[in-house]
Amino acid sequence: MTAVVVTALAATTLLTAGAAGASPARAAAPWTPRPAPLSTPWTDRVPVDHPLPEYPRPQLTRPDWANLNGLWDFAVTSRDAGQPTTYGERIRVPFVPESALSGIQRKITANDRLWYKRTFTVPAGWDGRRVQLHFGASDWETTVWINGRQAGAVHRGGYDAFSYDITPLLNRGTNTVVVSVYDPTETGGQAIGKQRVQDVTPHAGHSIVYTASSGIWQTVWLEPTPTAHITRLDMVPHLEDDTLRVTVRGSTAATGAAVRVTVSTGGTTVASATGTVGTELSVPLPGARLWSPDDPFLYDVTAQLTGRAGGDRVGSYTGMRSIAVKDVDGVRRPVLNGRFVFQTGTLDQGYWPDGIHTAPTDAALKYDLQKHKDLGFNTVRKHIKVEPQRWFYWADRLGLLVWQDMPSMDSGKTPDSAARTQWESEYRAVIDQHRSSPALIQWVDQNEGWGQYDQARIADMVKAYDPSRLVDNMSGVNCCGAQDGGNGDVVDTHNYVGPGNTPTEPVRASVLGEYGGLGHRVTGHEWYPGGGFSYEDQPSPSALNDRLVGLLDGIRENAMPAGGLSAAVYTQITDVENEANGLMTYDRRIVKVDESRVRAANRALIAASRDIGPPVRLPVEQYVSLRVTTPGHTDRYIRHHDGLGYTEAVDSGSSELLKQDATWKVRPGLANKLCYSFESRNHPGEYLRHRDFRVRREAGDASALYRADATWCPVRGDGGIRLSAANFPGQYLRHIDAELWLARSGGTHAWDDPRTFTEDTTWSVEAPWAP
């Protein structure tokens, strides 16, 4: 299998001049890692000379390559200075100078320029081939020289890979590479995500933004290729006609060359097709085994230029799956392989206390994704950061649905035209780099209005550039001044603690891009002891478990079937610096929650989505009365009195006022048209709503809060329906001691008493007492 080959590929031993690649003109400076604010289980397992030795590009593999990670000479100068004559420090690449694992651990500002230098010798076996120098990523403006001559153009971008053909610049024997990087972080206009210039040691404040990562932060490596060679495989599964569509991209010399693409499994060829570089070809795969989180099956793929002997040959892999949005029982839902599966995931920031942007090892990179699987999640939202290609490889292998954010520009600025041009160019480069990952199902353009502009146009641009995936034009359209472009495949709100409901629409699927944020600090595992922040602190692990499982159960019982919610992303998988709301501590040493309980809740949610059935329908624009179903009280109905909600016995001999008080007009939900609102019969314009948990009849004030409080989402109950608050799935309209409350079984209030809770929250829809 390709996956095994990719993991096992070993780099060619690279010959270096001087100790650990130091300049031969002087002795190497001493080097040691710095103490990390928190050490992870992998901190002490990072090799000094060969960190991250794994093959860095799993979807385009060749057998020969050479890893340049390790100790480089390092210097920091003023922004406008030329190349330094001396390098007084050494840095462990690819860890950024702000990190402990780099050995530098120092704040980098917009006044600084970073300089890296090392020597290498090209292996003799590469004679006659072109030599490519690859950077997984370097943040932000990177210039490269080989033997004193600049290699290609300056690269601008912090999250996309880039390469140079350095063959004309090479010497026989020892070669010197110098890299200069300038990174202004938030003082520039580029994509920065959560990065901010700040002290690199723990400190108070900065709750949702983190230490910046400047310079080289992904693997640097060499690779020999023929002059005519393959540069990328764009692979799109088409289940509708049982084909894999493949476009082989190549160097200028390979344009129009003949190519063969072969799909295999276990060493046995399944199918192949021939075509030319730059044109789409179809590989027939009838009866293909489909990729999904439950069965993340991957086919091996090879592509070879066939026009001449010894033509370039690369290995890859693919998964056959489809993703779309369609009507499911009258509700717009995302469908994987033609079926609705609820997407339950976490927000994954991808930060580390020892490496910041860079995971200390490949095992560490895999670990966070494996924990998603262990906890029963099937989705991960990579939040305004783009990971190395090996992260996508592990998501593909383990089976996780990926929402990939494009990193935001600074939240406090309106980007100018140059910043917009750069951001869109980098976005397209990121799409190109990861467009063949089967795990990646959705692009998230912008988040909570940070650096927002042209939302609708950008969503259309992304959809046209990659029509095979869903597009979210804005995550958190209800937050922070964000503006919804109105298009894309999903409408996405944020709700802390939530989960709440995203209002349904006739075209887009409703998703919850962020909710949760439950916090629990673990002594000895805090980035800044006592400084942790969360959206709702929990006093103990048991309280955290109960609250989290309650949120997941609320989605399963109400938000999904009654509110039309199709996906929910919990904040977050780990603590990050001063955010203490992770399911794990920042050092990854403690899982705060009961894995088996959380996994069971997630698995139950996913299982329920497979057989969800149509939502409960009530008679819109008609009058009804709502009767108690609790044994011994079935003659009682919901009524209002002096503006508050009660239950009271009603019969044919009751007063006309009581009969009118116990009659309600069913309206489409004020906050969600899939749900309902109940308008008073004798007080038109006033609705049954909850406020401070008490349920009352109240006039609207046109606010979003009122509309949500006055919207109820019904699910089937034993002998009737249960009415959940649209903005608090899992909390129900309940009668207790004749009063109406918004209640949660086993909660902390008297009205949350679990005794007869189900019966007390089940209502029978009856003919109106006052037609």
Automatic annotation (TrEMBL):
The keyword Iron-sulfur does not apply. Residues 26-45 are annotated as: Disordered. Keywords: Glycosidase, Hydrolase, Signal. Residues 364-476 form the Glycoside hydrolase family 2 catalytic domain. The keyword Signal applies. Residues 626-765 form the Alpha-L-arabinofuranosidase B arabinose-binding domain. It comes from the Bacteria. SUPFAM superfamilies: (Trans)glycosidases, AbfB domain, beta-Galactosidase/glucuronidase domain, Galactose-binding domain-like. Coiled coil: none annotated. Residues 109-185 form the Glycosyl hydrolases family 2 sugar binding domain. Residues 228-321 form the Glycoside hydrolase family 2 immunoglobulin-like beta-sandwich domain. It holds the Pfam family Glyco_hydro_2_N. Transmembrane segments: none annotated. Residues 1-22 form the signal peptide. Belongs to the glycosyl hydrolase 2 family. PANTHER family: BETA-GALACTOSIDASE, BETA-MANNOSIDASE. This is AbfB domain-containing protein. It comes from Streptomyces tricolor.
